[in-house]
Design brief:
Number of strands: 17
Strand order of the largest sheet: 10-11-12-13-14-15-16-17
CATH topology of the largest domain: TIM Barrel
CATH superfamily of the largest domain: NADP-dependent oxidoreductase domain
Strand content: 15-25%
CATH architecture of the largest domain: Alpha-Beta Barrel
CATH class of the largest domain: Alpha Beta
Helix content: 25-40%
Largest sheet: 8 strands, parallel
Shape: globular
Order of helices and strands: HEEEEEEEEEEHEHEHEHEHEHEHHHEHH
């Protein structure tokens, strides 16, 4: 049998990849030089048929893979690429965790800040997310006073595959965002950090937290030893595996100094079409230091859903009632209307918003809130579509909006 060569590769690849191997179906898309692969493997595949094989090697950005086609003991490189169908995975900085680029933001299932949900619905959404390949769940002790952690733990414990759980230590004084004038003794004393981590472990009913993050931060504390010693002691004890920081709302610069300490494995930061400020300094530093980035609030608490009107209402006591108070809904409608006009008809704003986040190579995972199965399925589907094209990104660049609705 002749080895695959340049003149016959398209025909041979159609023959080879058009069949099913061990339950994994391959099919061409658009052109013979771009193939789809549906597989459980997240980093390497090997499919064989009639002494021929395709070996998928290390990932090359956004889920694309270089591969070789072999035959008759001869090996020749094929200048094509394949792309895994379904969820894509990226390394979380230097942790070695290979996490889904769509994560599950679990604030909304806590039951106290976002209202109108139900536990059964939340559990169904969590299970469906895992079925679709989501393997990173971000929760916090402050989400429903531990209720979100309890729901997450219930699902994770019953899942046979590895699910990475990230949670957070709330500030002791329960003040968001952190005030630079507040001493760290009032926010993150040593004993409090340790006790909070142990409380989260009890809520989750897990032995280890994969990523423990401080829920607020200010670089005025970076030289204090309490927070660092507590987190490193927890790591040495095997209670946590990695350390993270949640950067102050709309202020990515508040975490730059702590990123340079060598202690931080991942940073969680607001990043969306309206707030693109992390691109300036945080993302380049994260890439330089190999620190993972979790992009939170990708839909701007619902503003980028594209469905808000000036008459939209929320249940009394819901966080969004405060966030969109006064004339803020009218401001949102004005900005979103302009954005939709520039994007053109038949463009889904929430899908574009998620892919905007995934288009930056510094971002490891984007973590939208997903309280329903419908939202899970819609959001998870964006992983496979890859980055936005340069023209669309250029349009979105013009829609950055400097404001802070958390104040």
């Amino acid at each position: 049998m002749a080895p695959f060569g340049a003149t016959t590769r398209d025909e041979n690849l159609r023959s080879l990849l058009g069949a099913s191997f061990s339950g994994e179906r391959w099919s061409p898309k658009r052109a013979s030089a771009h193939w789809l692969a549906k597989a459980e493997s997240r980093s390497r595949l090997r499919l064989e048929r009639d002494h021929r094989s395709v070996t998928v090697a290390a990932p090359i950005g956004f889920g694309r893979f270089a591969f070789w086609v072999t035959g008759d003991k001869k090996r020749s490189p094929v200048p094509l690429s394949v792309k895994l169908v379904g969820m894509q995975y990226r390394k979380l900085g230097r942790t070695g965790f290979e996490v889904s680029d769509i994560g599950y933001g679990a604030w909304g299932i806590g039951g106290k800040q976002w209202l109108g949900g139900a536990d059964d619905e939340s559990l169904a959404a969590l299970r469906r997310a895992i079925e679709l390949g989501v393997n990173l769940i971000d929760t916090a002790l402050a989400y429903g006073d531990g209720h979100s952690e309890e729901l997450v733990g219930e699902v994770v414990r019953r899942t046979p595959t590895k699910i990475y759980v990230a949670t957070k230590v709330p500030p002791k004084n329960r003040v968001w965002p952190a005030n630079p004038a507040t001493p760290i003794e009032d926010v993150f004393p040593y004993e409090y950090i340790v006790a909070s981590a142990e409380e989260s472990l009890r809520n989750l009913k897990l032995d280890t937290i994969d990523l423990l993050q401080l829920h607020v931060w200010n670089d005025a504390w970076v030289k204090r030893e309490e927070w660092r010693r507590a987190l490193e002691d927890l790591k040495r004890a095997g209670k946590i595996r990695a350390i993270g920081i949640s950067a102050t709302e709309h202020d990515p610069g508040s975490a730059l100094a702590v990123m340079r300490t060598g202690v931080i494995d991942a940073v969680q930061v607001i990043y969306n079409i309206f707030d693109q400020t992390p691109e300036t300094a945080m993302f380049p530093l994260a890439q330089e230091l190999n620190i993972g980035i979790l992009a939170r609030v990708p839909l701007d608490e619902g503003a980028l859903s594209g469905t808000m009107t000036s008459d939209t209402t929320f249940p009394p006591g819901d966080f969004r009632e405060f966030y969109f108070k006064g004339d803020r809904k009218c401001q949102v409608v004005e900005h979103v209307t302009a954005l939709k006009k520039d994007l053109g008809e038949n463009v889904s704003l929430p899908e574009t918003a998620l892919r905007f986040c995934l288009s930056h190579p510094a971002v490891t995972s984007v973590i939208p809130g997903m309280r329903t199965v419908r939202h899970v399925e819609s959001n998870a589907a964006q992983s496979n579509l890859g980055p936005l094209d340069p023209a669309t990104l250029a349009v979105l660049k013009q829609h950055a909006w400097d404001r802070n609705f958390y104040s």
